[in-house]
Fold this protein.
Amino acid sequence: MDTAAILEELADILGTPPGTLTPETSLTTPGITWDSMALLAYLAFLKYHFNRTLPNVSCATFQTVNDLLKEAKQP
């Protein structure tokens, strides 16, 4: 899955319109919903698309969209 496709999925998870996220976007930006439900959706996305699990994470673990991208792109 390429970066553009991941960003589209993240936009859906974060409740923002497609094409509005960049790697530099802060997860505390107004209009972005980064809460425990979004974290669960992100973890399900990682498991479904990449067969990855992240034990012991919280919303505070991630500060920017790039932090989310890094986890998705890990081998």
Summary: The chain has a mean pLDDT of 94. Residues 36-50 form the longest helix (15 residues).
